[in-house]
Write a structure and sequence with these properties.
The chain has six helices and five strands; from the N terminus they run ααααββααβββ. It is of the alpha+beta class. The strands form two sheets. It has a three-stranded antiparallel sheet with strand order 3-4-5, sandwiched between helices. A two-stranded antiparallel ribbon has the order 1-2.
Length: 161
């Protein structure tokens, strides 16, 4: 039990390494933002040399328009690849996965972080259930039921196909 507490203290004081989107994800996000800006400039009939003078770049507006477009496409059964890094309430980070966005394939990622997404969901559920996440790694998480003074390990492994 003492080792677990030391491990917990260590993990709580260590900084979480930021997961950054890869080059292809970044390029996709930039392409989407630029295309959305051009679309809005066209709607506003800003044909001149410097449309940004009349319509300054505003990521809040661009994302709002993009989100509306994604919603409309999804209502009609289309999946849209919108790469992002997700961060759960417990701090676990992972790249978006096809099970979330509905894409059948992804040109932005070489490897999907499905296990991390599942762990994130479990950690969120555990927290909502009144348990505390003590520690975790790539294969398991340790949770504590303080009411019963009991610790549990939850592990996930991918099954062979």
């Amino acid at each position: 039990m003492e080792d677990l507490e030391k491990s917990t203290e260590k993990s709580e004081t260590e900084e979480t390494k930021e997961l950054e989107i890869n080059q292809r994800m970044s390029e996709r996000a930039d392409d989407i933002d630029n295309a959305t800006y051009r679309y809005l400039a066209e709607l506003l009939e800003l044909d001149g040399d410097d449309p940004e003078e009349k319509f300054p770049w505003n990521i809040e507006i661009l994302r709002k328009v993009f989100d509306s477009a994604v919603c409309a496409l999804q209502e009609h059964g289309y999946a849209v690849c919108n790469p992002y890094v997700s961060v759960s309430e417990s701090g676990r980070q992972y790249f978006c996965t096809p099970s979330e966005c509905g894409c059948e394939s992804c040109s932005c990622q070489d490897e999907f972080m499905e296990k991390e997404r599942i762990f994130s969901s479990i950690e969120d559920a555990v927290t909502r259930g009144g348990l505390k996440v003590l520690d975790g790694d790539d294969d398991s998480i340790i949770v504590r039921n303080s009411r019963l003074d009991m610790d549990f390990e939850i592990s996930i492994r991918q099954l062979e196909e």
